[in-house]
Amino acid sequence: MNDKKIAVIALCDPDEPAAIRPYLDALDVPHGYEVEMIEACAEGSTAAACQQAMEKTDAKYKVYLAPGSILIRLTFFREMLCLFAKDPAIGIIGLIGTPQLSTTGELVMSPHVVGNVLYTDDTSFRGEPIEGEMENVMAVSDYLIATQYDIPWRSDLFHEGSFWAEAQCIEFRRRGYRTVVPQQKEAWLIAEAREFCCNEVSRNAFLDTYSKDIYPLVSVIMLTYQRPHYFRMALESVLTQTYRNLDIFITDDSHDTVTAEMMRRDFSDDPRIHYEHHPTYSAAENWTRAMQYNHPRALYVNWLMDDDRFMPDKIAVMMDCFFAHPDLSLVTSYRECIDVDGNRIPNPAYAKTICSEPTKFDGTSVGMKILLQTANFIGEPTTVLAKKSLMLDGYRLGFTGKEGKYLSPDFPTWLHLLARGNMMYLTEPLSQFRIHEGNDTWNPTTFVSGIIGWAICIRAAIEQDVFLRDNSARRAAIVQWMDMASVARGKLGHILEAGKEPVFRDFQIVFNAMSEALETDCHIEFAIDTTLELLPMDD
């Protein structure tokens, strides 16, 4: 390759000359370099046109320009060469780029975009400011792509004019090269304003090919027990997610082999699925196994109960929230309630939307409100996508790690996360919560255990000095808990008085301790066996 030669590859429409041709002579050419221009017809596959043009020249440096693009930075070539010379790992220079592509694959939909461009209709785009001389990005727009290495364009994947530029950036990335956007106080390029119309075949080809390269791995953790019909629907709702980079872990404590046979027959060829069958496990042991699972590369985690379902774009929509807001620890949403047959039913009060539009909430404020209301308005495990690094020990459920057998799988974990970040609530339904007689929440033992779990969270918040930071808030939380516990005593008095199970005796211990706390400056002490980290879940 001729390292003293620059090829300007101008993509153009059939029968129309490249827009830059009349302006090319006005650009400064560094001493000792030559510039040649190659027009390439962009009709059909743009990637194929770029590949053909690349093969026509021996120039080391190539500048690919979209139809209608005109360079107005007279010193562009000199500045391009200086940037390439600073680091041989720089493979691509663009003028508009994003450090993280949206889950649609579209640069224009990405939450953070840098760079500038003027449009031929007298409008302009100015992205977020760049600190320093340049910024590393994941992908650049097709307005201008400058390269110092030749890597084949993916004409085998893209037969239309969509996603070819993003794909080329990822191909360079795969080979260890950087893509950068230089700081531009004023725009260096005029481009044609156009509506972005993405070809869905190309989108799917791009996401299928590159999702593992550009998106964080998300773990989906499922537990199931002897309801293969519901479980199959739940699993299929994961497999049909538009977000591709998934790790799916399933632990099954069914005492029969119906689910295991279904998994071998219908799902064994999906490399994303890791299935374990533990027919001798109790429900508590199955939960323990699920909480032990920790994929080292997964950065986010979403639990899915085997009778619930995800909407197809649940993970994608929530991941875009994390991309846009790095301070989030969890994203949740409105969830539809369905009956035993999957029909929509009116949502109970605890599942109503908490706002009228997508809203980011301060984590500390939400945590305090949860404890003051003893209400899990954030949702069940199915509802929430969480940042895994902020969870207990980097992957486990829980608020303190000391809940033991009184750990509930949802609100203690949300409290732990809210103490470390903020929350996004989305108003569109992104999951379905099935309400039926098989829900474990109808079990009196589980119900009472949950009340004990609330008390443990209140005590932990006081001990950690989070959420409840003054005696007024602490007293209000304890009084609210006493009201809830008193209602439970009224409904389950005959069961509690019998005290045949340890949970009911522990409930009385906690009730007495919370009562005393109101008389002792909100100091809570009560003894609960936490030697076994088991959940009170019954098959």
Q: Would you tell me the structural class of the helices and strands? A: alpha/beta
Tell me the number of helical segments per DSSP (H or I, 4 or more residues long). Answer: 13
Q: Tell me about the biggest sheet? A: 10 strands, mixed
Number of strands: 23
Question: Under the CATH scheme, which class of the largest domain?
Answer: Alpha Beta
CATH architecture descriptor text of the largest domain = Alpha-Beta Complex
- DSSP helix fraction: 25-40%
Counting structural domains, the number is 3
Please name the fourth-level CATH homologous superfamily of the largest domain.
Spore Coat Polysaccharide Biosynthesis Protein SpsA, Chain A
Average of the residue pLDDT scores: 92
Apparent shape: elongated
End-to-end CA span:
69 Å
- Strand content is 15-25%
**CATH topology of the largest domain, anyone?**
Spore Coat Polysaccharide Biosynthesis Protein SpsA, Chain A
Q: How many whole angstroms does the radius of gyration measure?
A: 29 Å
Low-confidence stretches: 530-539
